[in-house]
């Protein structure tokens, strides 16, 4: 029998599927003392350790770029009721000074990211698995808008990543886990109904 003090939730979903929007809504409903949200993005390995494709372009959309060993170590600490300190991941932006982030234990620990189900050891730790899904044309449109406006990328750069990194990774490392999820959040439609369902689930756990 598990003796952890918290309920561990994994939230996976493809690029631009709506994970950030979902987390924002959950954070409005629950305080940090109720739901501790951890982003897989803060556990990217250094640039020199990232996989490169045949053209020498760094592929950030591959699970080998994530330090799962460190994630599991930090999750175990939180599940035992101990706080965790990490350094913010700044997407290799030299103009942003990384902040120190402290995660405090909470009744629900939620780990979100592209590959939170891709590591067998980590995947076996979850009490509940959420998957957020959206149509490909919707996610591609969102990704183009986000990366061209927020990350200064050209349309050609976005489409190169999509065709060579993002889509292959989704097919291999994300899509197969939909069937094993406890609940699928549909973010093309019915998003609000799905959000209500998850909020109710979380309230039950906390109470």
What distinguishing features does this structure have?
207 residues; single chain; 37% helix; 5-stranded parallel β-sheet; two-stranded antiparallel ribbon; globular; 17% strand; alpha/beta
Q: What share of the residues lie within helices?
A: 25-40%
Helical stretch tally:
6
Mean pLDDT: 92
Low-confidence stretches: none
State the strand order across the main sheet.
2-5-1-6-7
CATH architecture: 3-Layer(aba) Sandwich
- The tally of beta strands, per DSSP, is 7
Q: Hey, roughly how much beta strand do the residues contain?
A: 15-25%
Q: Give the N-to-C terminal Cα separation.
A: 20 Å
In short:
Helix content is 37%, strand content 17%. It has helices at residues 19-29, 68-79, 120-123, 136-149, 155-174, 191-206; strands spanning 7-13, 35-39, 84-87, 100-103, 108-112, 128-133, 183-186. Helix 4 (136-149) packs across helix 5.
What does this structure look like?
- By secondary structure, the protein is α/β, with parallel strands linked by helices.
- The chain has one domain (7-206): P-loop containing nucleotide triphosphate hydrolases (Rossmann fold, 3-Layer(aba) Sandwich).
- 37% of the residues lie in helices and 17% in strands.
- It contains 6 helices and 7 strands; from the N terminus they run βαβαβββαβααβα.
- It has helices at 19-29, 68-79, 120-123, 136-149, 155-174, 191-206, and strands at residues 7-13, 35-39, 84-87, 100-103, 108-112, 128-133, 183-186.
- The strands form 2 sheets. A 5-stranded parallel sheet has the order 2-5-1-6-7, sandwiched between helices.
- α4 packs across α5 (155-174).
- The longest helix has 20 residues, at 155-174.
- The protein is globular, with a radius of gyration of 17 Å.
- The two termini are 20 Å apart.
- The mean pLDDT is 92.
